[in-house]
Amino acid sequence: MQFGMPTLIENKRLEENLALCLELGLNFIELNMNFPEYQIDSLENTEHFIRAADWAELYYTIHLDETLNIADFNPLVRQAYLETTRRTIEVAKKLLFLRDKYGDKSQPLTINMHMHHGIFVTLPDRKVQLYDRDFEIYMKYFTDLKNLCEKWIDGADIKIALENTDGFRDYEKKAIEMLLESPAFVLTWDIGHSKACGENDVPFILSQKDKLKHFHIHDGRENPPKNHLALGDGEIDLKARLRTAAECGARCVLETKTIEALKKSTGWLQKEEIW
User: Fold this and answer.
1) CA spacing 20 to 30 A to 41: which of 49, 119, 202, 273?
2) What is the per-residue pLDDT for 5?
3) Which residues of the chain have pLDDT under 70?
């Protein structure tokens, strides 16, 4: 399996992340577009990212901004998110050869995406999700996304990987099922997120096992909910989850949030003779 790391808040420069990735013997870095240094206009300076990757003999995956909301009801906002996705795919196309050079060609290059829950209205007796109430509009926007991503990817070995967070809503599951009918989309299993929400997403994720191509690996607990722990510091059956990743031929990001936790996690993998 190929293991990588996220961009870490302790490392403000790309070169610091690459140096750490190289030191730990990891294969790639997942560039996180939540960070100001990895916004789309910065990523479009692909020559800089390619030179740095060649120095370290590593490659990149990409994580879209967590606030990206494909079904936003405001057409101006929605269009901005779609344009961000389009331009990110163009960046991924230019970086794809790095995967071929330093990674595993059997694994598609992934652009990770969260499913935004949208706005809810609190009534005296319940909460109403607007995407649930206006489900047909919600599905239309995701159908548009599917068609556009197929056009933008245009046969390149790039996939949009849909990640679980704090529990998929029913309307999200229906949208995901529709998206996974397309060759442009796959699933990310974040094993820490699923643990922290009581493994509610696991049956749905495993029902789509043939589409699992990307994993976020970190330890977690249920009570109290906690994730992004170093491997070995939580309650997850990590070996079972890693076996599933291997069966799926998936790529794994060690998605801890600190340098210390990342080093501990790579040490755990080596101690357990997994990597």
Assistant:
1) 119
2) 98
3) none
